[in-house]
Structure formats: structure tokens, C-alpha cells
Amino acid sequence: MAAVPRRVQQAEDELIGQVWNTGGLRSAQLAVERTLQPMSDHRGSAAYRLALAQSLLAKFQHELVVAA
């Protein structure tokens, strides 16, 4: 994303007290989209970096379901 890690509190807020379903995941992903402004450079475009950040939420959800 950038030189400094950034926490997306809005995405966390979308998930607190909610069921981890498709709707909750999508709400958190939209919060990531509204909050982050990734940079583009020779290693990846801003669109790629944003999609990667959003996919990490989906991966985390999947790992929680598998572990349950």
C-alpha cells in the first residue's frame, strides 16, 4: 500500500458485532476502499493494491470458517 502500515478502523467497526457472512465481508471491503488511497508504482497499480487489501479480508474470513 504505502511506506507506513495503516489500520482501517472503519472496516473493523463494520464487523464488530456482525456475523461474518458475505454482506459483512462486503461492508468491510467497502470501508477499505473508502479509507485507503494506495499508490501506484512499478511494483503494482493502485487498483491492484486495493484489490489485494480487500482480498486479505476474504482470506481471513475463509480461514476463520475453516478453523471453526
If you had to describe this structure to a student in words, what would you say it looks like?
- It is a single chain.
- The chain has 68 residues and is mostly helical.
- 63% of the residues lie in helices and 0% in strands.
- It is built from three helices and no strands.
- It has helices at residues 9-15, 22-35, 46-67.
- Helix 1 runs antiparallel to helix 2 and helix 2 runs antiparallel to helix 3 (46-67).
Unreliable parts: none
The helicity comes to 55-70%
SS-based class = mainly alpha
Main sheet record: none
How much β-strand is present in the residues?
under 5%
Helical run tally:
3
Number of strands: 0
Shape: globular
Q: Give the rounded overall mean pLDDT.
A: 91
* Secondary-structure element series: HHH
C-alpha-based Rg, rounded = 13 Å
Distance between the termini: 30 Å
Give a quick summary of the entry.
The chain is an all-alpha fold. The chain has 3 helices and no strands. The model has no long low-confidence stretch (mean pLDDT 91).
List keywords for this structure.
globular, 68 residues, mainly alpha, 3 helices, single chain, 63% helix
Draw up the topology in text.
Elements: H1 9-15, H2 22-35, H3 46-67
Helix pairs in contact: 1-2, 2-3
